[in-house]
Amino acid sequence: MTSQIIPVDPFDFIIFGGTGDLSERKLLPALYHRQRDHQFSEPTRIIGASRTKMDDKEFRAFAKKAISDHVKPEYIEEAELKTFLDRLSYVTVDAKSGDGFAELKKSVGDSKRIRVFYLAVAPSLFGDISDHLKAHKLVTADSRIVVEKPIGRDLESAKALNDIIGDDFGEHQIFRIDHYLGKETVQNLMALRFANALYEPLWNSAHIDHVQITVAETVGLEDRVTYYDKAGALRDMVQNHILQLLCLVAMEAPASMDANAVRDEKLKVLNALKRVNGNEAPKQTVRGQYRAGASAGGPVKGYIEELGADSTTETFVAIKAEIANWRWAGVPFYLRTGKRLASRVSEIVIEFKPIPHSIFGESAGPIFNNQLVIRLQPDEGVKQFIMIKDPGPGGMRLRQIPLDMSFAQSFDGRAPDAYERLIMDVVRGNQTLFMRRDEVEAAWKWIDPIQHAWEGSRQEAQGYTAGTWGPSASIALIERDGRTWHESN
């Protein structure tokens, strides 16, 4: 996508978990792309930090392989890669004991540059690292700390973790990252709603029948066995990604794009969500767990077989949610996410209400509701489904077609990865696309009663065959309301 690249002020970017999976797959490639687009000013430095013992040369070799493996060959330029690798250094640290933090302080030095501490580590280490940074006087006025989800596993633990980090960093320095919010299509949802006169007058219960939000994966456990079995789909995906998308769909127009103006409106949506209590959970939620089936053209094991142990953890969740405010009263939001589903797709579907009366008669065929489909991945884009006359003689026959805007076709060049955008926002100190403390805790206040209801009623995870769209109960959840899941190919 063509846009003016504005260099940022020099900064130090310290990656805790610098030799881990997230650093390898996402952070180092994202930082390389920003180097390639000349967004760094001198003397920007990138410092890897983890328990793995290695020196600067070995870390540079690790980073070079990461870029070779995760950046398309046409974007690897030897001169830019060398400049990027020359920025890298490495310090061995132990988050628990604090060993190595004195060496890290020496490596960072007394520079007045912006400092970004990115915690690409297990959440159990967040508090330890934060405390060690403060104890070794590494936290300056221009420091930021970035923490990945999950922020806790329930409201109580989220508050405790926020308290620990909040004692070491100011709220304006804490960046709780959700990479979904860095996707171009997610941000285009804001542009679609608030930069066009077409949609906002219709964006309410008078015109919208219902909303669907789907985040479907075809993968299974992969390398997240230990974490995922303790979390499950509700905590892993709904509490953060899906509720953030719901907020962007449902929020009122903020006064500006100022970070707090946007987050204030998102918080209002979270607080307006109707709680799902123990009696309602069986009717409004579905838990599922995949069984053996087929995916990507081949046979795959079930969750229990992959895990190697019995488990009641859900790999699929569907929820009928409602927002108790004037704009959305009576409009259901159907949410679903799962692993080993039929296809990999993340999308938001806005289905408008039917026309009040058809003038065309039965011979014209059925008239389908207008839909606005916002595709987050893959093939980012926006489709508006409308009814038109089928061309040709023989009377008035109607058909539904999409007005299709594919980002890949509409914009030239490479679309930056979500992490690229979010990392640069951290450096600039722009928190608009990051979660505020009260947002995180409000989300847990809605999630916890569902989790407690499942545990209290022993609501089992229903089996579904890998490669399908989840348990049959999820189909019943929406079809008992006379609606159908939108299933993209």
Automatic annotation (TrEMBL):
<feature type="binding site">
    <location>
        <position position="149"/>
    </location>
    <ligand>
        <name>NADP(+)</name>
    </ligand>
</feature>
<dbReference type="InterPro" id="IPR022674">
    <property type="entry name" value="G6P_DH_NAD-bd"/>
</dbReference>
<keyword id="KW-0521">NADP</keyword>
<keyword id="KW-0313">Glucose metabolism</keyword>
<keyword id="KW-0119">Carbohydrate metabolism</keyword>
<feature type="binding site">
    <location>
        <position position="339"/>
    </location>
    <ligand>
        <name>substrate</name>
    </ligand>
</feature>
<feature type="domain" description="Glucose-6-phosphate dehydrogenase C-terminal">
    <location>
        <begin position="190"/>
        <end position="486"/>
    </location>
</feature>
<dbReference type="InterPro" id="IPR036291">
    <property type="entry name" value="NAD(P)-bd_dom_sf"/>
</dbReference>
<dbReference type="GO" id="GO:0004345">
    <property type="term" value="F:glucose-6-phosphate dehydrogenase activity"/>
</dbReference>
<dbReference type="InterPro" id="IPR019796">
    <property type="entry name" value="G6P_DH_AS"/>
</dbReference>
<feature type="binding site">
    <location>
        <position position="217"/>
    </location>
    <ligand>
        <name>substrate</name>
    </ligand>
</feature>
<dbReference type="InterPro" id="IPR001282">
    <property type="entry name" value="G6P_DH"/>
</dbReference>
<feature type="active site" description="Proton acceptor">
    <location>
        <position position="241"/>
    </location>
</feature>
<protein>
    <recommendedName>
        <fullName>Glucose-6-phosphate 1-dehydrogenase</fullName>
        <ecNumber>1.1.1.49</ecNumber>
    </recommendedName>
</protein>
<keyword id="KW-0560">Oxidoreductase</keyword>
<feature type="binding site">
    <location>
        <position position="179"/>
    </location>
    <ligand>
        <name>substrate</name>
    </ligand>
</feature>
<comment type="pathway">
    <text>Carbohydrate degradation; pentose phosphate pathway; D-ribulose 5-phosphate from D-glucose 6-phosphate (oxidative stage): step 1/3.</text>
</comment>
<dbReference type="Pfam" id="PF00479">
    <property type="entry name" value="G6PD_N"/>
</dbReference>
<dbReference type="InterPro" id="IPR022675">
    <property type="entry name" value="G6P_DH_C"/>
</dbReference>
<comment type="similarity">
    <text>Belongs to the glucose-6-phosphate dehydrogenase family.</text>
</comment>
<dbReference type="Pfam" id="PF02781">
    <property type="entry name" value="G6PD_C"/>
</dbReference>
<comment type="function">
    <text>Catalyzes the oxidation of glucose 6-phosphate to 6-phosphogluconolactone.</text>
</comment>
<feature type="domain" description="Glucose-6-phosphate dehydrogenase NAD-binding">
    <location>
        <begin position="14"/>
        <end position="188"/>
    </location>
</feature>
<feature type="binding site">
    <location>
        <position position="236"/>
    </location>
    <ligand>
        <name>substrate</name>
    </ligand>
</feature>
<feature type="binding site">
    <location>
        <position position="51"/>
    </location>
    <ligand>
        <name>NADP(+)</name>
    </ligand>
</feature>
<feature type="binding site">
    <location>
        <position position="183"/>
    </location>
    <ligand>
        <name>substrate</name>
    </ligand>
</feature>
